[in-house]
Amino acid sequence: MQSLDSEQQHIFVETNNIRLHCVSQGEGELVVLLHGFPEFWYSWRHQIPALARHFKVVVPDLRGYNDSDKPASGYDLDTLSADIRGLIDRLGYKKAHIVGHDCGGAIAWHLAQKFPEKLNRLAILNAPHPQRLVQEMASNLDQLRRSWHILAFQVPGIPEWLIRQNLKDFVQNIFQGQAIRKGAFSAEETKIYQTALEKPGVLAAAMNYYQQMFHPQRLWHWGQKLEPVTVPTLVLWGEEDTFLSHTLVEGLDRLITAPFKLKLIPNCGHWIQQEAPQTVNRELLNFLRNSSHSFALA
Questions:
Q1: Which pLDDT tens digit goes with each residue over 268-297?
Q2: What is the pTM of this model?
Q3: Residue 265 phi/psi, 5° resolution?
Q4: Residue 193 bears catalytic tag
Q5: Is 102 an active-site residue?
């Protein structure tokens, strides 16, 4: 995969007993961008050069995706968060700004709760708190309907096999089909995602994320009291998300005991940083460049 910018570097970082492939650009405070399902670093292609003018931006392929290692285990949030904590350390930083979308957002939420000392700031893009998602699926039929794919992914082996048989159509439907701003995904861009998903072991790893999150041993834990997030937090949300209900952003202020801002982006779907890149870049730069003293509460 060629970088879109000649200043971008492809690096491999050993962390938590695995090797993560990352794209890196810029200098300064560290910003780590965490992609979701079924993506890889490329989903942040519009953000990397914009943020790199002010920060050192590092974008990993998460465990199991694209060119990162694909072990058989380690797809639970504790291990995934430890991957990113180790990445920050191996890059020589004490802290990072963490930005996460979709599954990467679930990791970001967990990281902020488990290792708050590693975060400067937290930015979440169309990613519910994982505990909140499980609770909502249990009590909200609309969210259960939107999350049918998560339930389907619980069956070992079969979803991976089905997706592989129809990979081109799957990629086309999940990206362009579910986007509100269809122009965000050209035929060339969907082909790039398809190529990354064709790599051996990727689809099995991607399914594993959902199987681990909804493992019976963890469902009891998800019913417990939510631990508050103690770092300044920005949540950006495409309002027309077909996968995630609006109710998932209600009451977020009760989860965050720090400066918090929620911004809804109209006429925008789940793939927010690709559908509305200029808006996302502006909001991220405003949030990450301002000191916590000047960051207004929503």
A1: 999 999 999 999 999 999 999 985 444 544
A2: 0.94
A3: -110, 110
A4: no
A5: yes
